[in-house]
Amino acid sequence: MDDTMRSCREFTTVLSSAAPAPGGGGAAALTAAVGTALCGMVANLTTGKKAYSAVEGDIQQLLSTTNALQEKLLDQVAADAEGFLPLAAVYALSKDAPDRAAKLVQASETACAVPLRIIHSRLSSSISLPCVDALAAAGRLADIGSRLAVSDAGCAAAILGGALRAASLNVLVNTKAMGAGGAPLTERCLALLARGEAASDAVFKQVKDRLL
Predict the structure, then answer these.
(1) I want to staple 189 with a disulfide (CB 3.0 to 4.6 A). Which of 28, 171, 173, 203 is the partner?
(2) pLDDT tens for each residue of 47-89
(3) Taken in order 113, 165, 206, 148, is the CA torsion positive or negative?
């Protein structure tokens, strides 16, 4: 079952159970989709308003990109559960099973793929929409969006920052199992994490300062 089709109560009940999925990666994907949806809310509350006509083009672009990313992130909830299956199969093997170490490395790399897509999702050959770009959208919306929804832009940044941090841990726990072979993925993840943390903190402070 696609966990995104469950009610919120059903999803959190399954999440809190001993079931292997959804887990941290799926939760990160759903959380990121919620943060991105808040960006869409701010854009929708701004578009078509006479007071913001000068930035209508920018608002429409932000709305288009955040809507696309929201859908992509929701897709990652099921994808993360699917990506964990090979790793679960390796964990079920005895410690002395032939090629267990090699299988662990391969399965761990597979399990890294979705958390990395949560941080940095490529929707097409020409459009790259990483989670840090969603944070940039939140910052831009805090600047030019409806002043009545500025707190929602700040909420989006806070939520996206948490989702990005959560996704990064799901990468790092798997690259650790890969040993030296996981170093390139670890380096890429940490670079994206640093960008995302800086963006999240900056937008949150920007909005908080406006509200004080």
Answers:
(1) 171
(2) 999 999 999 999 999 999 999 989 989 999 999 999 999 999 9
(3) positive
Could you please report the per-residue DSSP string of the chain? --GGGS-HHHHHHHHTSS-SSS-HHHHHHHHHHHHHHHHHHHHHHHTT-GGGGGGHHHHHHHHHHHHHHHHHHHHHHHHHHHHHHHHHHHHTS-TT-TTHHHHHHHHHHHHHHHHHHHHEEE-SSS-EEEHHHHHHHHHHHHHHS-GGGHHHHHHHHHHHHHHHHHHHHHHHHHHHHTGGGGHHHHHHHHHHHHHHHHHHHHHHHHHHHHH-
Q: Which two tokens stand for residue 87?
A: 């790793």
